[in-house]
Structures are given as C-alpha cells and as structure tokens.
C-alpha cells in the first residue's frame, strides 16, 4: 500500500526525519511518500499558523491524494484533519490523533511533552477537539533556544526526558507522547530514561494507517464525514476547486 | 467607534443583508464597514469550507484591521476566530460565539436552527470548541431547496418557525439562535410565532463588540491569546506575512 | 433606556461605587438608577447570605422594576438571578454572569480573583450553575483585613495584582475577572500590572444590558424562564405577592 | 434521636402526609417533629418560589434547630439546603438529595417523575447542583389538574405509573424517584406496577438522617461548609440575625 | 434484620475489625454476620487483585446470601459490586460507594485518603465508575511500611492525619473518607485532628444497608440491574452455577 | 510476531470464527493462536458473567502469555483488560477498545450495534470506563431468538443492518461497530447496506496489536499500569499465583 506523509511545514529536513523514523516500522509492501508544504512557515507552533497550514493541507491533498491508499498529516496538532476527512475519500490520519489513540491502549492517561510553550495551547485544542481530555494528564512544554528545527532532538534530549519524568511524577501520566514532528525517531533513545511507555506519533500514525487500509472502510454518505454537496468556488487552486465542485475524477 | 464586519463568503449580497440588519441597532457613533471575501465559496456550509475561510479571514484581517476598533467574523460558525484572536491586537468577535453567549443570558439552554444539515455538523464543532455544549439543547436543521442564498429568508420562513418550535417543544430550548448569515434580520418577524426569545447573531455580535471596545481590554502578553513569536514565512500575502513576521507597524 | 442597578447589600457606598464605575461607559441615552437593599448584610460573602439576598432581590424587583428596561443584580454571585429571570418580564442580568460571558470573548479560560476566601465557595457555585466550569481556570482569593468595605480597593491593590498574576502564571488564566462589587472601577489601574485582560463586572453587565434591551427579546411563554402559573401567597411583601399571584398590572 | 421535618410550604396537610409516610420507617428511638412554613406558598413549584422558601428555611431552622439532632428540608428540590449546611451545625438533609443518593445504590441511572412541568425545571437545577446529572436518566412530568395538593396522590396514581414506566422504557431509568412532597407514602402502592425500584424521598431522607446522626460528623471549620465569619445584619428575624452575627448560644 | 459483611480478602483479622467498628452503630435488631474469603490475597490493593476478588465475591454471595436481608462488600473499592447487584435479588452495598454517597451529604467534594499508592489507582476507577468524579477533590495516598495489615491503624495514624489535612488545605476537600478496610473504626480518633468530617466506610455502609432494607426496593425486572437470562455454565462453584442457570430456589 | 487470541467464552466455534475473520488481515509474519476458556459460560452477555470471565482471563494469560508478543481479549466488552495490562508485561488489547479507538479515526461519534439488550448494559460500562462516551452516539441492541451462538450472523443480518441504519439516522453515528464476537467477519457483507464505515472489532484489535508490537513500548514501572508489588496468595491457579507473587520467570 502507498501512504502519503504530508508535512504541512516548509522544512523538508523535517519531512526526511519523519520518513527516516517511520520507514523501519512499516509492514512489508508499505511504501511511504513524503511531501513538504510549498508555502507557509518552517514549523507550525500556534493556532493561527495551524489555521493556514490546514487550508494548505486541503490544497496539497487535492493535488496529491490520487496515488495513495491513505494520507498522514505529519504535523503534531493535525492541521486540517477533520476537514480533510470530510472532503476526501481516502483514510486520513493525524500524528496527534494516532498518538493519543495508541496511547489509550497503553495507559489511562497520557501526557504530551513538547519544546515550545506556544505549541502547548494548540495541542490542548487538539485534545479537546478529539474529546480525549478525560484521558490526558496534561501537556508539558518548556521553551528553550535551539539552533535549527532539525537540531531540536540533539539539543534537547535531557530537557525532554525531564519533562517526561515530571509528567509521570507530578501529573500522573501513564504514557508519554512526544509532541512535534521534530521529535520523530527519538522515542527509542528515551526508553531507559522514562519510566513509562513513550509513543512516537509518526510511528503510531503509520501503523494505524496500515490498519485502516486493511479495514478498507467505505466513504460515508451520511453523517459528519460524508462529502459536502458540490459548491461553486472562486480563486482556489485547480485541484481543490475541482474537488469542492465535484469535478474531480475519483469520487 | 469603527467595527469591521468581515464576511468570509464571496456573496456580497449577504454582507449587505448583515449590515442592513445590524445598522439600526448600533449605538450613536458606531460605524460599520462591510468586507466580502475575494475568493472561496458563495456560502460556507462545511468544515472543509470553514478551514479555507478561516485562513482567508486571517489574510483579510491582516490587510484591513488597521482602521478598526474591533472586527466581527460574519459567518455563523466563526471561521478563524480563535486564530484571529491570537494573531491580532484588536478585539475579534464571531457571530456564533456572540449569539451563544447572549443566549446564555436569556435561558439555560439554547438551540440553533439552520437551513442545511451539513451546516449542523460544523455548528456542533463550534459549540463544542466553546465548551458550551452544557448550554446547548441541540441544533435543528432541514435541508430544503432555495433559489439563491439571498432568498433563503423569504422562502424558508415557515420552515424556520417549525424548526424553532420543535427545538422548544422537543429539545427543551429556552432560546433560539438563527444560525447562518443568510438569516440576518429575520428575528423580529419570528417573534410572535416562536414562544421563546430569538437571537439574531449579527445584532448580538455588534452589541458585544461595542461592549468590548468600551471595556478596552489590553492585548494579552501571556496565555492562549498572546501573540505568537515572530516566524519567517514563505508565499503568504504581504500583510499576513508582515503580521506573522512581526514586521507590521501596529503591534 | 433605563437600567436598574440593584445592590442586594445594605451598603449604599458600594452602590455609589458601582454607579461611578459604570456611568462613564454607558451609551448616549442610557440612564442608570441605583437601589440599595433595605435589610440584610453589609456585604454578601457566603451562600447563606446569598440565599437571603436572592429572596430580597425578588422583593426589590417586584417593587421597582416597573420603571426600567432592564435590571442588573449588582452583587458578584448574582443572588436571585435565575429566579428573577423566571418571575419577571424585563431582562435581568447578573454581574458575575455578564463578566464571565464577556471574558469568554477574550480568552479560553478566565479566573476570578477576590478578597475573601468565603466568597470563593459561593463564586464556584455560580460558575457551576452557569455550566462554565470548562471555561474557568480557577478562583483565587486571599482573606486580608480591611478597614471598611468601601476601602477594599485602596488597601488591597497589590494583593489583587498578585492574585491576578498567580491566576495567569499558575492556573493558566487568559482573562481575569475582579470578583466582588467593592472592586468596581479598579480594572483600569491594574492594566499595566496584569499581563492579560481584566474585566470589571459592572461594566460588562451594563454593556450586556444595553445589548439585550436593543435585542428586545420576548418574554418566553415556554421553557425554563416562562412565568410560573399564578399561586396564592401568604405573608409576602405586597408587590411580590401581586407578581406571584398574577395580580400585577404589567404582565 | 430527634429529627426535624421542616416543610417550607404553608400546607400543613402535606407536613402530616410526610410524617405519616416516614413514621413507620424510623428506627426505635427516633422521634420526628413536623414544622410547616408560616408564610410563602401552599406548594413550591418554581425556582422563584424556591428562592423565597430557601430564605424562609434558614429563618425556620434558626428558630427551631436547637432541639434536634438533624433536620430534613421536606420539599423535593431542597430549598436552602446548601446554605443551611453552611450556616448551621447540625446535619441537614434534603429529600431530593437523599432520594438521589439512595437511588444511586439501586441503579446506575435514576429518573424523577412529578406532577407539574414547572417543577421539572427546578428539579433539573437540583440534579445539576449536586453534580449527579451523569446518574440521572431524566425528569418526567405531566401537568394534570388536581383538586387540592393533598389529593394529588389519589387523583394521579395512574398518571404517575405511566410516567414511571416511560422513564424506564424510553429513558433507561434503573430506579424511579417520586418527586414532590405530595407523593409521600405512595411508593408501596406502585411496587407491582413499575418494573424497577421506586424511592420515596421522605423515607430516604429519614434513613440517611439516622445514619448521619449515628456517624456524628463534626462541623467543619475549613472548606465549603464551615460557618461563615460573624457579620452584622439589619432587619432579619431575631434567631437568624443571632446566628449570622454569632450571637447564638449553641455553636 | 440480618446483614452480611463479606470481606473478599483472606485476612480474618480485618473482618473482625470491620465488625468491631460497625456493631456499635447498628440499629436495635440489626445483626451483622462476617464472612472472610476462602482464597485470594490477604489484602486487595490493585485492579488485578480486585478482578479476582470480584469473581470470588459472586461465588461467596451465591453461597451465603440466602440468610440475609442485605449484603455489604467490605473492601473499599467494592470488588464485584455492580455485577452482584445485577445477579442477586437482595440489596448489595459497597463500602466505597456508601462512603462517597454519605460524604455527598456532608460537603461538595470529598477526598479519599489511604495507605498505599497502588490502591489509589483502583479507587480512582471506582470514583469514575460511580460518576462521582465531580464530587471528588482527589485521592491522597502514601506508601509507608507496616508490619501487618491489622497494624496499619496504629502505625500510621499521624500519616493519615497528615494526608487528610493536605486533602483539606491543598485539594479543597470538604469531607475525608478513610479508604481501605484496615482503617475501619479509626474515624473517631481523628475527629479533633482533621478540620472537616471524617467518614468511616463500614459505618456508612451499614447505615445505608439498614435504610435500604427499610425501603424494601423491589428487584428490577427491567434496566441495568435486572437479572440476566438463564445461561448454561461449565466448571463454576455449585451455588454460583445454580444462580446463573436459574436453578436456585430464591429467585 | 505471535498474537494470542484469547476467547474468555467456552465456545470454541466462536474462537474459530474470530481466527477466520482475522487471519486474512494480518501482516506477513504475524501468527495468531486461538485459546478458548476452559470454564465459564458459552457467551458472555452480562456484567456478572464479565466479572467471572475477567478473572478467568487473568488465569489464562498467566498460563499462556509466555509464548506471545501481544494478547487480544477476544470478547467485545474486554473482560479483564485493564487488570491484565496492569499484571502482565506484554501488550494486551481488547476488541471493544480497539474497535472504538479505530472508529475514532473514521468519525466523531461511533455507535455499537449488538444482538442482545443485556449486552448493551455491559458495553455502556465499557465505553464509560474508557472515557469515550463523548465519542459514542449510542448502543443499539435488539434481543432476537437465535438457534446457536455460531448462527447469529446468518440469522440476524437484516436485523443488524436495521440497527446500524437506525444508529446513523436517529442517533447520528458516523461509524458503526459490530459488538460481540459472534459478529466477527460480518462487516464486508454490510458494506453496501450501511451508509457509514463498519468496524469489525477483531480486525481492529489485530491491526492495533501489530502496531503496538512494532512500537515496542516498555512495561511501565510507574503509574496505573506498573506491576503491583508481590503479594502472597491462597488457592489461585499455579501460574497466576506465581505471577502475583513475583515467582514467575519472565518479569
């Protein structure tokens, strides 16, 4: 099966990190394609940036979804996830959602740790939107300087371990989720230092995507994720306009 | 004071309906400016359309907010409201939010009635995002054909009355909110036919906007609505890029 | 329009403070009338005192509401608010409710700060009764000595600032509400010292009252705020008895 | 032990019905005293009437509590219950609260059935205030004419049975609570007609009161039910003023 | 009436402590029978142990319930309570449930204090299962060494007092519940040291059991606690098999 | 990898149905082992049966888990799931939990449909225990006669389709979960008849189990799923006693 790993940030190095973390975990026969946003910000850290990234996600999906069996929105916080699920026919997964749902099988309450406090506000919105706040022990963040987004892991390992341990001891987390695409691939290195399971969202998303493709759910024609009726559009990208106007081939 | 009535739809006739409904209700000295979206869809009725409209709202606000004391996002469902509050300094209100909060002073539970079932899904997301589901008796919608978006009121008055009465009798609504900009100005005509108060969202939003301008709240520098740190951008509209990069004058 | 500012405490100096804080904020044409309770306690700080004050509020409203377009129950905690809304035809607002709803347009979570810990219990009941606990970051109070209720502001400014800052930093408040009528008018002085918006409840209530009078909602004849059926009474004040027995003129 | 059965209505016949239903169920040595409100309404059916009755309850308790080990506020809806618990030292129980808590030991979700729809609004407030809505399957009421409050049982038995059965079949109630003092003593007659347990609130309250007196809990000096600090009063009844001003003997 | 005090632990000394604490509080005519588990663990402190104990509880009840009017599952955490209520006809109470419901009449929020942190996880499940988390201020536990389960009280009194006081001061508890059968009978000694009421679960359970027997609720034939249809079984204890297969006498 | 499919019922035909439904969906290299309960009931349909089955699950896991990478408790309702996760080191999944979490990626609200009403009570407990009631549109069940548990699918297909369609149209379900092991493998046949995705729990569980084994989470040594301290036991099965007493080899 073919899975689209759609990074709604403009930093291709992050896309490559995500693919590097995910590829060793796929089942035989699964192929991952990376895609990096053509415009926007180098990393999404606020709700206004997520609003823009979500719109861009729809545009990117409209253009690239055709060749894939499922798509993964590869920014923790899942910009555009629910709208994408409504608009498109293929299964679409988000790293935050997949990580949280996977964490639910490992403990009663998960915590998310991340490396900027602005992100924590956005992530909290995500937890709430998924109605999983009853399963969330908290979000812990510390804003520390880093030289570049692709260096976050190397420069912050001890800070991330400290946040994870605080989440366990002070907030009662049973599981820790590493929030933010720049932390992809870091989980195994934390294993011995954090006393509870640590979930890497890109791995969780890829494994849930494989599961969904196997389940082969039909596109709903009723309910909250049925496709909206056709609507005229003005000034949108060609592929997105075609999708919204029901002029695209693959319905 | 000057209030920006920002319609994130492309239908200027709806903008004019909103202004016509609101102007008789403003306090002496309040001036309303209308603004219609330059691209997008003629009316927003789904979450994917709202995702795009929210991004456009940020772009429109970046360009036009400078001359105003407050802005109203004039599509029920409030696309881009929370991101706009985060990104900009002036008070920003949404019609849905203002209608719900106003309804809370008139009853314990409000219902929203609207004229397409797709919208109901989006509106439910809005109620949940504002954590007001404990105050919401339900959302009632019926998808009926209409000749044009500006004719909805004339063609659907009896259907809207019927939905409102069902909301009261079957769902236990104490107040009814007319959901959707195309219903602006309709409330007085329903007064005798609906046994509970009926709230017109654009009026609620304008009156709350006047209140907020009078309160003159400071822009927070802490918490969920403080401005995100400066961030480089690629390919965004000039005014929006300037705002995100902290290159705009009015910070 | 004429708004009744009904203070259910016996301290007329507090009534005057409330009027002094509110008058500069009214729209042209709005007239405020003050009314101080003829019996009870000098300031309400507990639920038993609020129970008595709420009954007195109904009695005062029965006697004085006739000349007004709306009424504001001017004790934070809103004694008698929901019963008053049920029993009378004019819009009735509470300072706590109006402050919380206004705060909801300025942040996701508000905190209330106040100057006696007993009050905090009562205020928490109020937040819960309005089903706004999902929007409340907490209530912070410290019981400090003060020479007289009208001196609270002058003697406690630094303590109130400290509580507000703790609410922001430790509880995650996006907005701070000054709880308690004796703090009316204090908000502008705190602006530079508190990093988030500060809401003055009497101003919030007056602006929402103006909005409601403009909206001109009908008295419901169905639902939780419809008028109760006529009932015989024994030993109540004449105006209140007349209202409950449906013998009053203005129904 | 001596239990005060305080009826905050003015109908002595209801007080006698309550005592008649409760007396056969007390433990050896328990003595019940009845007390009927000297003013107010013949039966409380709305939140405004409950506000007044709650204030009267405090006044009646201040005068009569001295000779008792515990008090029961004998109107379903419990007017003044939480304020009374705050203000007085002896255990105070409410019929609604006791019935709901007892019902929680008989099923996961209880329903309340009653004989006027206005009461249902008030009862819903009560369920919410006790944070038991997660245990409540609903409140079912039907407003039917009755000749006098003391004849409700005789005239409405079949209607009450019908409501109870609807609560079970349509709302999923595991237990039914008979709401309203005029239904006291009716439960045994419904036993064969309702397929789940039926709780008589006055019996539940008396048995819980006996339990509390046996437990002999101390009056809290911290928390939400500690006694408020002394406060000057104006115009209150002598016993109530003495209690609030801390001039009463029995603290 | 005859009440069965069923201890699902194997420590008979704890059964005797429970009986010793409860006997002085029963009404004239109430007889308590103790029963200790024939297999399992000496004290239940985890959810896996509770799973086993709950199954054993059903087996013990099937064998011994016949001679009793009600049964009390005498391990805080109530292993098997809801299944027992479903399967058997007599009222069945749990110490945790009875303590929490009783605490609800003494304050708005209760805390549970206990002597091992593992237990706290299990107790939290219990609070959630009863949907009483809105009434729970928290669970405080500290794992301290003790020489034998029957010595816990003597060795830990000061630790328990400290936890109770922290619950009041830091968590806002209005009432404290002593969690764990080994703390039975300890409440009176804490009275002067803890500033809020302290509830002893076995006393609460016995008093509620007396109340239920007096109420004489019918066994439901509808809803969540009606008896499951007959089912063949393999390899279960004779009395339990008879009950599940509907071969027992007393249906 | 090796996955244990543990059926806590005594009906081996159901175990075979589960394996038949799951085997076509596993990734290359995954091997499924079936295990049927040696005692208990032929199918679990109530909470008392689930209590017994959960205890048996622990016993079966203690004996058989050693050869496997993960285990699936293959009765919808997941008897013993959380205790098993606490007690053992390998990942343990439940069919109900896995189905609900998977459904969360396909819609906002799922419904469960099943073929006996008694089961619905138990399933509701499960939804609540996972704190997923905010994602659940309801549970629909109809008790129809069937000749044998292995014939349920063939005899009830139209009834299940009808329930699923009611869940969509009346309850607002976005996804339907087939509740109950006897429905395993039925989903593809319903695809054209139900307008939203249909989730087969055993497939969901197997795919999530593969994902978890790939993630290779560590056994927590802190939090709610850390292993309980060693405890002496009496009368338990040898393997289970060894596990609880920490005498087993593979810790």
UniProtKB/TrEMBL annotation, chains A, B, C, D, E, F:
Entry's family note: Belongs to the HyuE racemase family.
This protein's name: Asp/Glu/hydantoin racemase
Start and end residues of each stretch annotated as Disordered: 220-241
Protein's organism: Ancylobacter polymorphus
InterPro entries xref list: Asp/Glu/hydantoin_racemase, Hydantoin_racemase-like, Iso_Racemase_Enz_sf
Pfam families with a match to the protein in the record: Asp_Glu_race
């Amino acid at each position: 099966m073919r899975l689209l790993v759609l990074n709604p940030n403009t930093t291709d190095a992050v896309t490559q990190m995500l693919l590097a973390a995910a590829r060793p975990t796929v089942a035989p026969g699964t192929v991952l394609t990376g895609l990096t946003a053509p415009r926007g910000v180098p990393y999404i850290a606020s709700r206004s940036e997520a609003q823009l990234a979500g719109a861009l996600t729809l545009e990117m999906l409209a253009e690239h979804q055709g060749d894939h069996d499922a798509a993964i929105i590869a920014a923790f916080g899942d910009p555009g996830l629910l709208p994408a699920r409504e608009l498109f026919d293929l299964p679409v997964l988000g790293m935050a959602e997949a990580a949280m749902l996977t964490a639910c099988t490992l403990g009663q309450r998960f915590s998310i740790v991340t490396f900027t406090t602005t992100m924590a506000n956005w992530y909290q919105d995500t937890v709430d939107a998924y109605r999983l706040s009853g399963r969330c022990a908290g979000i812990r963040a510390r804003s520390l300087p880093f030289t570049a987004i692709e260096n976050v892991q190397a420069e912050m390992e001890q800070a991330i371990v400290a946040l994870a341990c605080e989440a366990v001891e002070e907030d009662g987390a049973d599981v820790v989720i590493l929030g933010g695409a720049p932390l992809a691939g870091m989980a195994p290195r934390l294993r011995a230092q954090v006393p509870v399971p640590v979930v890497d969202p890109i791995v969780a998303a890829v494994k849930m995507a494989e599961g969904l493709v196997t389940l082969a759910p039909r596109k709903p024609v009723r309910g909250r994720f049925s496709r909206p009726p056709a609507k005229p559009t003005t000034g949108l990208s060609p592929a997105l306009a075609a999708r919204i106007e029901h002029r695209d081939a693959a319905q």
